């Protein structure tokens, strides 16, 4: 059972400002049913002051309590003041949240930002990501910008921290390498930790047999360990020129994101380490 | 506040008769069964009796029973023993819906020991496909491990058929029967199961005792090595009170099996249909036909499981949830995911598990309180039938 503070329990059992503002000046929607929590925030603004706020939340006790706390925090503030609010303020208002639940406070902060943008006519209610951003975690739809910000604002040190605060990495686990890279990047380290291997595309000029061996070894060293971490595996079925046919086994064979895994992991790795034109297909 | 305990698949109340039976073994008959003196020896006699009780209940020979500390130890012992018996065989067959005692062990063996594991998939009701199972056998398959009944949904698996198929393929068959024992008829003399795990505390005995059945003649490699206890198959001074309790619990289970399948089942059905009728957007997760009589796993659309549990806790109802938030993970339970339960429902699943101590009043109270409790949470939710993202079973639509 979670150790929730009395304030969390109070805001969960007696949520403040739950509901909808029909003629809201700004609406912010974050999260989804798939992700396990979602929050819609409505704000009413008069002369630059937030005069009312209401929320609707799908999620666990701390998600509901965080939403309730958020509305209490912003009502009566000017928009400029509210803009400075961070997820920490929400967590502090509740006397703290379990570390694993910090993402609930981040969700509150994001909903508020979105509602303000929406009020200013800069965006729709639902958060859209800028095109420069990169999708890091497919399971939860988290972009690098969000992760970098959470790292900065909360001084996060480990991948686990990032998962607690943003959910990224909490599903299939495929994105943890990328999260680790972002952590290094945020710390100002170079993004190439391992000594970069010399030849860009070693497969050029190789014989077929050599190329097959190379593919096998990339599978063993770079692909299988990641799949096995999730209880899956991959079988090499055939190699024909630049087309590699594979089959997922174990957990991967039934994994809903196996198609993404095929492209983002298997194909990407083989393109990076063997040949940029490789095409990987699933045996059917 | 009165506690309404509907979490019996997590653990059960020790039966007062079991408690009576073990009392003397704490402060009076505390001897070590291995001692030479009669004072210890009489305890040895009691352990023999307990072993007979367990064996009788399972329809096997007393020498085929090894007492352990829990279901997880039994599971670990079984799988590791089979692997040690066939060091050249590197393949394991199990299901995607096993208890973590098996699943985590299998992923460990994959990651650290170079094994390959086939995880059998299920359909949307959590049922296995026997054709897929038959196809999974390989020349290097060392063991099959399939749970007899699922802890989350209560689904009962066709263990007899599956054991026969394993036998035809010459592969050891283990079943984790922790949830099935006491609720499902088990007669090991009639079916080719090679190893079976059970746990005391799911059966109204205390926590900290379990048993592993190992078919006579099967090569066995102990997991705990040390003293000669359990005829050298499991070292460690016997958990006398636990073992006596397990014996007694098995004896009681034999007489109570009928009640489990009639009275308990009737209460479960009443609870299930009552909830489905009173509350819209609910569904049962699991096999409509082959399910444990005490279990129902119900999903409440548009609300989240942890929030439901806390609300229930507030009025004294204990249950559990397959939602992500309760376990500290971010994904709903692996069992519901394997069944492709849409996220709308997977996050809001509640497992009610009854026992013979559950009363009519308990169920009435739950039926009275649940509708308004769910309604309250739903008024907080941004989702509803009108405003729902389509029933998503798969990530990710970006
Ligand atoms: S992609 Fe991030 S956890 Fe799956």
From TrEMBL, chain A:
Its cofactor is [2Fe-2S] cluster; Fe cation. InterPro entries: BFD-like_2Fe2S-bd_dom, BFD-like_2Fe2S-bd_dom_sf, FSCA_dom_sf, N_fixation_NifU, NIF_FeS_clus_asmbl_NifU, NIF_FeS_clus_asmbl_NifU_C, NIF_FeS_clus_asmbl_NifU_N. Gene3D superfamilies: 3.90.1010.10, BFD-like [2Fe-2S]-binding domain, Fe-S cluster assembly (FSCA). Belongs to the NifU family. The keyword Nucleus does not apply. One of its GO terms (biological process) is iron-sulfur cluster assembly. GO terms for molecular function: 2 iron, 2 sulfur cluster binding; iron ion binding. It holds the Pfam family NifU_N. The keyword Signal does not apply. This is Nitrogen fixation protein NifU. Fe cation binds at residues 35, 60, 104. Residues 215-281 form the NIF system FeS cluster assembly NifU C-terminal domain. May be involved in the formation or repair of [Fe-S] clusters present in iron-sulfur proteins. Residues 3-121 form the NIF system FeS cluster assembly NifU N-terminal domain. SUPFAM superfamilies: Fe-S cluster assembly (FSCA) domain-like, SufE/NifU. Keywords: 2Fe-2S, Iron, Iron-sulfur, Metal-binding, Nitrogen fixation.
Automatic annotation (TrEMBL), chain B:
Keywords: Iron, Iron-sulfur, Metal-binding, Pyridoxal phosphate, Transferase. Residues 4-364 form the Aminotransferase class V domain. It catalyses: (sulfur carrier)-H + L-cysteine = (sulfur carrier)-SH + L-alanine. InterPro entries: Aminotrans_V_dom, Aminotrans_V_PyrdxlP_BS, Cys_deSase_NifS_bac/arc, Cysteine_dSase, PyrdxlP-dep_Trfase, PyrdxlP-dep_Trfase_major, PyrdxlP-dep_Trfase_small. GO terms for molecular function: cysteine desulfurase activity; iron-sulfur cluster binding; metal ion binding; pyridoxal phosphate binding. Gene3D superfamilies: 1.10.260.50, Aspartate Aminotransferase, domain 1, Type I PLP-dependent aspartate aminotransferase-like (Major domain). Signal peptide: none annotated. Catalyzes the removal of elemental sulfur atoms from cysteine to produce alanine. Seems to participate in the biosynthesis of the nitrogenase metalloclusters by providing the inorganic sulfur required for the Fe-S core formation. NCBIfam families: FeS_nifS (TIGR03402). Belongs to the class-V pyridoxal-phosphate-dependent aminotransferase family. NifS/IscS subfamily. Homodimer. This is Cysteine desulfurase.
């Amino acid at each position: 059972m979670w150790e929730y503070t009395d304030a969390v329990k109070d805001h969960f059992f007696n949520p403040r400002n739950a509901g909808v503002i029909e003629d809201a000046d700004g609406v912010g929607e974050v999260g989804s049913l798939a992700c396990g929590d979602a929050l819609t925030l409505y704000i009413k603004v008069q002369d630059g002051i937030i005069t009312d706020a209401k929320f609707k939340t799908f999620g666990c006790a701390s998600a509901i309590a965080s939403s309730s706390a958020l509305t209490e925090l912003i009502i009566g503030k000017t928009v400029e003041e509210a803009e400075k609010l961070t997820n920490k303020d929400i967590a502090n208002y509740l006397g703290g949240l379990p570390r694993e639940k910090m993402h609930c406070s981040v969700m509150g902060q994001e909903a508020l930002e979105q509602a303000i943008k929406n009020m200013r006519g800069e965006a729709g209610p639902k958060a859209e990501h800028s095109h420069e951003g990169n999708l890091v975690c497919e399971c939860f739809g988290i972009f690098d910008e969000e992760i970098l910000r959470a790292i900065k604002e909360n001084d996060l040190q480990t991948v686990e921290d990032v998962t607690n605060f943003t959910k990224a990495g909490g599903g299939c686990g495929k994105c943890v390498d990328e999260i680790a890279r972002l952590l290094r990047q945020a710390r100002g380290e170079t993004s190439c930790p391992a000594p970069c291997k010399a030849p860009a595309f070693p497969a050029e000029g190789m014989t077929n047999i050599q190329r097959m061996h190379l593919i096998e070894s990339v599978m063993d060293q770079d692909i299988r360990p990641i799949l096995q971490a999730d209880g899956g595996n991959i079988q090499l079925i055939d190699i024909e020129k630049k087309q590699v046919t594979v089959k997922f086994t174990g957990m991967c064979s039934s994994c809903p994101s196996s198609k993404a895994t095929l492209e983002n992991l298997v194909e990407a790795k083989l393109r990076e380490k063997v040949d940029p034109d490789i095409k990987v297909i699933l045996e059917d | 506040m009165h506690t309404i305990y509907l979490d019996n698949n997590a653990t059960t109340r020790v039966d007062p008769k079991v408690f009576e039976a073990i009392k003397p073994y704490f402060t009076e008959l505390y001897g070590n069964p291995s001692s030479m003196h009669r004072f210890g020896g009489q305890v040895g006699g009691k352990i023999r009796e307990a072993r007979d009780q367990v064996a009788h209940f399972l329809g096997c020979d007393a020498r085929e029973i090894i007492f352990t500390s829990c279901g997880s130890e039994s599971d670990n012992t079984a799988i590791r023993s089979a692997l040690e018996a066939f060091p050249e065989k590197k393949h394991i067959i199990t299901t995607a819906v096993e208890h973590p005692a098996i699943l985590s062990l299998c992923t460990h063996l994959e990651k650290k020991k170079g094994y390959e594991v086939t995880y059998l998939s299920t359909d949307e009701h959590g049922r296995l496909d026997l054709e897929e199972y038959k196809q999974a056998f390989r020349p290097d398959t060392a063991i099959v491990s399939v749970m007899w009944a699922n802890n989350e949904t209560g689904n009962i698996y066709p263990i007899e058929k599956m054991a026969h198929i394993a036998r035809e393929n010459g592969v050891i068959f283990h079943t984790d029967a922790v949830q099935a024992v006491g609720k499902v008829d088990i007669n090991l003399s009639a079916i080719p199961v090679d190893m079976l795990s059970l746990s005391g505390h799911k059966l109204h005995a205390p926590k900290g005792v379990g048993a592993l059945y190992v078919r006579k003649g099967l090569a066995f490699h102990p997991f705990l090595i040390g003293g000669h206890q359990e005829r050298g198959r499991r070292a460690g001074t016997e958990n006398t009170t636990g073992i006596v309790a397990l014996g007694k619990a098995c004896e009681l289970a034999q007489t109570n099996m009928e009640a489990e399948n009639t009275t308990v089942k009737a209460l479960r059905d009443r609870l299930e249909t009552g909830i489905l009728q009173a509350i819209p957007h609910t569904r049962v997760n699991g096999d409509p036909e082959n399910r444990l009589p005490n279990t129902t796993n119900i999903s409440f659309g548009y609300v989240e499981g942890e929030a439901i549990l806390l609300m229930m806790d507030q009025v004294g109802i204990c249950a559990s949830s397959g939602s992500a938030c309760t376990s500290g993970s971010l994904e709903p339970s692996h069992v519901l995911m394997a069944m492709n339960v849409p996220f709308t429902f997977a996050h809001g699943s509640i497992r009610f598990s009854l026992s013979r101590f559950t009363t009519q009043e308990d169920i009435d109270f739950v039926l009275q309180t649940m509708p308004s409790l769910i309604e309250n949470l739903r008024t907080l939710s941004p989702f509803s039938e009108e405003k729902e993202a389509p029933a998503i079973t798969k990530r990710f639509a970006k």
